[in-house]
Design a protein that fits this description.
The complex is a heterodimer of chains A (348) and B (309). Chain A is built from 14 helices and 15 strands. With 348 residues, chain A is an alpha/beta fold. Chain A has 2 domains: 156 residues, Periplasmic binding protein-like II (D-Maltodextrin-Binding Protein, domain 2, 3-Layer(aba) Sandwich); 152 residues, D-Maltodextrin-Binding Protein, domain 2. In chain B, helix 5 packs across helix 7, helix 10 packs antiparallel against helix 13 and helix 12 runs antiparallel to helix 13. Classes of the chains: A alpha/beta (348), B mainly alpha (309).
Chain lengths: 348, 309
C-alpha cells in the first residue's frame, strides 16, 4: 500500500513537473568555451518542450561565483572543482561536453597546419626562453620550413578563463619550469606577452600581429580561419586539431574512477590524441530550494545527453559517451535533493 | 488668494530643503562609496599593507598582488595623452576662435563636439584595427631609428602597448579640451583684443599675451576635465594597452592600467583575496582621481586669488 502510494505520488509529481515545464526559463552562467553548443541545444530543446535556457557566457570563474551566490540554476566551468572545493560549497559537478584548445600562429609565408611544435617548446615560448621564430629548437622540428628571423609575439588571455586553465594545465604537464614557475590556473602571472580579452581578443591580436602565437578554443580557430599548429602528443606523433583527435584524447578518460568527475583530459595517451583537450562542467547545488526548477534543468541536460551528440559534433565538440551519461544520472539521483531531503531526479 | 499665500509660505522652504537634500545626497553617496570600497578591500589591505603600492607582482596562482604596474600604467598613459592632446587642443581652439573664417567655425566646432560623443569602445576598436598596425609599421620604426638611444623607444615594435594607449586617450580627450578652450577664448573681451591689434600686435602676439593669459584659468579647467576622463578610461585602453602585468621603461611595451585590470579580471576573480585586491585597485583609482582633481582645484583657487597671476 505504502509503496503504491509512493509510486502514485512520484508519478503525480512528475506529471506536475512536466506540465509546469512549458513557459519555464532555466538560467545558467559560466564558461564561454561551450557557449555555442549550449545555445544550439537550448534552441532545439525549446522547440520541443517550451523550456527556455538563459545562459550567460561570462567565463568559468564567473560561473563558479554566480552558482555559489545562487543567482543562477546552474554554473558552468571548464576547470573542474576538486572534491574538497565541491564539498565546501555544497555543489555537485558533472561533465557536459568536451573540446580542444588550439595554439594558433601568424607568420607571413607559413600556411595553416605547417608548423610543428612539441609541448616543451611551446612552454618555453610562453616562458620567454625561446624568443625568435628561427630558434634551433623550432627549426629542428620543422626542417622543411624557412622560419623568419623575427621576434615571437606571445598572446595570452587577459581575463581569467577556463581556456587558460586547460592550456596552463597542459604546459604544467610537459614542462617542470612552467609547473614550478607559473603554474596551472584560470589566470596566471604570464612571464611574457600581451593579453587579449576573451577568445575573440586573442584571435584579434594574433591575426593583426605578424610573428605572433596565441591559443584559442577550437571553434574560434575555425571561424576565424586561423593558422593552427600541429602538436606532438604523448605518444610522439604530431597531430592536427580535429574532432577526431579530440575524440581520441577523450576516449581514454576513466570517468568512473573519479566520483566528483574531476578528470582532466590534457596530455592523454593515444597515437591520434590531441594533447590540449578538456571537458566543460556543470555545477549545481546539492540542496535545491526550488526542486521543480532543478528538475527542469536536469531534464534539459538529460535531453542533451540523449539527443545533443549530433549538434555537438557539427560544432566540433565531442559529446559525452552514454556510459558517462549513465554515471551522471546516478549522481543526480543520489546526491541532489530538495532542502527537505526529497530526491529530485527519479532515478532509472 | 489664500491658496497662493500658503503655497508661498511652504513652497520656498520645501524647494530649499529639496535642493539641499540632493546636494547632501551626493556627498553621502561619495562617502558611502569610499567606505564600501575600503570595507570590501579589507582582506587585501590586511594582507599586503603599504607593500601593495610598491609591489609589481600580480600573481593569481600564488595570490600575491601589487598595484605598482597598474598605477604606473594609469599615470603614464594619462601623461602621454596630456602631452599630446594639450598643444593640439589649444591649436584647434585658437583656430576656431580667432583664425578660421566665420563660415568654417560652426561646422568645424560641431565636428569636434561630435568626436566627444563617440563611445569609447569605438575608439578602442579603431585603435586596435587601424592605429596599432600604423604604429608598428611606421611610427615605432621611425621613433626607434631616431630616438632609439632612449630606453623609452626601444624593444619589439608590436603596435600594442603604452604609447598606442596614450595616443588613443589623447584623441579621446582632444574634443573635450578643445571645445571648452574655444569657449574660453571666445569670452576674451573684444575691446582687449582690438586694442592690442590697434597697437600693432600680430595675431601671434595677441594670442600669446592677451588670450592665453586671460583665459588661463579656463584652459586649466579644460585640461583637468580631459585629465579626469583619461584617468578612468577603460574600454579603449583595454583594447590597445596589451594587458600585461609587467613594468618596462619602453613605451612600446605592453602594460596595464587600473581600469583595464578591473575590466579584464573582475568577473573571473573567484577567490576572496583576488576580488579584494581588485577592489583595492578601484579604491586607489578613486583616491588618485580625488587627489589630482583636489590639487587642481587648489591650484586654480590660488591662481585666481589676488596677486596669484
Amino acid at each position: 500500500m505504502k509503496i503504491r502510494w509512493g509510486i502514485t505520488t512520484l508519478v503525480a509529481a512528475l506529471l506536475l513537473a512536466t506540465t509546469a515545464q512549458a513557459g519555464t526559463t532555466i538560467t545558467g552562467a559560466g564558461a564561454t568555451f561551450p557557449h555555442p553548443v549550449y545555445g544550439k541545444w537550448a534552441h532545439s530543446y525549446h522547440k520541443q518542450s517550451g523550456v527556455k535556457l538563459n545562459y550567460q557566457a561570462i567565463g568559468s570563474g564567473g560561473g563558479v561565483k554566480q552558482i555559489k551566490a545562487r543567482t543562477v540554476d546552474f554554473g558552468a566551468s571548464d576547470a573542474p572543482l576538486t572534491a574538497p572545493q565541491l564539498k565546501k560549497a555544497g555543489l555537485i559537478q558533472f561533465p557536459m561536453v568536451m573540446g580542444g584548445v588550439v595554439p594558433v600562429i601568424h607568420i607571413k609565408g607559413i600556411a595553416t597546419g605547417q608548423l610543428r611544435l612539441d609541448g616543451p617548446t611551446l612552454a618555453d615560448i610562453y616562458l620567454g626562453k625561446i624568443t625568435r621564430w628561427n630558434d634551433a629548437r623550432i627549426s629542428s622540428q620543422n626542417p622543411d620550413l624557412t622560419l623568419p628571423d623575427k621576434d615571437i609575439s606571445v598572446v595570452h588571455r587577459a581575463d581569467g578563463s577556463g581556456t587558460s586553465w586547460i592550456f596552463t594545465n597542459y604546459l604544467s604537464k610537459v614542462s617542470d619550469a612552467w609547473k614550478n614557475g607559473v603554474g596551472n590556473a584560470k589566470s596566471v602571472s604570464w612571464p611574457v606577452g600581451i593579453g587579449g580579452k576573451g577568445n575573440a581578443g586573442v584571435a584579434a591580436f594574433v591575426s593583426k600581429l605578424n610573428g605572433s602565437i596565441g591559443y584559442v578554443e577550437y571553434a574560434y580557430a575555425l571561424q576565424n580561419k586561423m593558422n593552427a599548429v600541429r602538436l606532438k602528443n604523448r605518444d610522439g606523433h604530431y597531430v592536427a586539431p580535429t574532432s577526431a583527435s579530440f575524440q581520441a584524447a577523450a576516449a581514454g578518460a576513466d570517468w568512473a574512477a573519479s566520483p566528483s568527475y574531476n578528470v582532466v583530459l590534457t596530455h592523454q595517451p593515444g597515437a591520434e590524441s590531441w594533447p590540449i583537450t578538456g571537458a566543460s562542467f556543470i555545477l549545481m547545488h546539492k540542496k535545491q530550494r526550488r526542486p521543480e526548477q532543478a528538475l527542469a534543468v536536469l531534464m534539459f541536460f538529460d535531453w542533451a545527453y540523449k539527443n545533443g551528440a549530433q549538434s555537438a559534433l557539427q560544432l566540433d565538440y565531442v559529446p559525452m559517451p552514454d556510459s558517462v551519461a549513465t554515471l551522471v544520472r546516478a549522481t543526480w539521483a543520489n546526491q541532489l535533493s530538495s532542502t527537505k531531503g526529497a530526491a529530485i531526479w527519479p532515478g532509472q | 488668494m489664500a491658496e497662493q499665500r500658503s503655497l508661498r509660505a511652504w513652497g520656498d522652504p520645501l524647494f530649499r530643503g529639496l535642493t539641499r537634500t540632493f546636494a547632501v545626497g551626493i556627498l553621502l553617496l561619495l562617502g558611502t562609496m569610499f567606505f564600501m570600497l575600503w570595507q570590501e578591500s579589507a582582506a587585501s589591505i590586511d594582507k599586503f599593507g603599504w607593500h601593495f603600492l610598491t609591489s609589481a607582482s600580480w600573481n593569481p596562482v600564488l595570490e600575491d598582488y601589487g598595484a605598482l604596474v597598474a598605477i604606473t600604467g594609469t599615470l603614464v598613459s594619462t601623461a602621454i595623452a596630456l602631452v599630446v592632446a594639450v598643444p593640439i587642443s589649444l591649436g584647434i581652439a585658437l583656430f576656431l576662435a580667432e583664425i578660421a573664417p566665420k563660415a568654417l567655425r560652426t561646422p568645424l566646432g560641431v565636428a569636434i563636439e561630435l568626436l566627444a560623443a563617440i563611445p569609447s569602445i569605438v575608439y578602442g576598436m579603431w585603435g586596435l584595427f587601424v592605429l596599432a598596425p600604423l604604429m608598428s609599421d611606421y611610427v615605432q620604426p621611425l621613433l626607434s631609428s631616431t630616438l632609439g638611444f632612449l630606453p623609452f623607444f626601444s624593444g619589439p615594435e608590436m603596435g600594442i602597448g603604452m604609447l598606442t594607449a596614450g595616443l588613443v586617450l589623447a584623441l579621446m580627450i582632444v574634443p573635450f579640451i578643445a571645445s571648452v578652450t574655444r569657449d574660453v577664448f571666445l569670452m576674451v573681451p573684444t575691446t582687449l583684443k582690438e586694442s592690442a591689434y590697434g597697437l600693432g600686435c600680430t595675431t601671434w602676439e595677441v594670442v600669446k599675451d592677451i588670450m592665453i593669459p586671460y583665459g588661463r584659468k579656463g584652459i586649466f579647467g579644460a585640461v583637468f576635465l580631459g585629465l579626469g576622463r583619461a584617468l578612468g578610461e577603460t574600454m579603449a585602453i583595454t583594447f590597445v594597452i596589451g594587458n600585461a602585468h609587467r613594468l618596462s621603461w619602453s613605451l612600446f611595451a605592453p602594460g596595464n592600467s587600473i581600469a583595464s585590470t578591473l575590466a579584464n579580471e573582475f568577473t573571473e576573480a573567484d577567490s576572496e583575496l583576488y576580488t579584494s585586491a581588485l577592489i583595492e585597485l578601484g579604491l586607489l583609482l578613486f583616491v588618485i582621481t580625488f587627489v589630482i582633481i583636489g590639487l587642481a582645484q587648489w591650484w586654480m583657487r590660488r591662481m585666481a586669488a589676488p596677486g596669484g597671476h
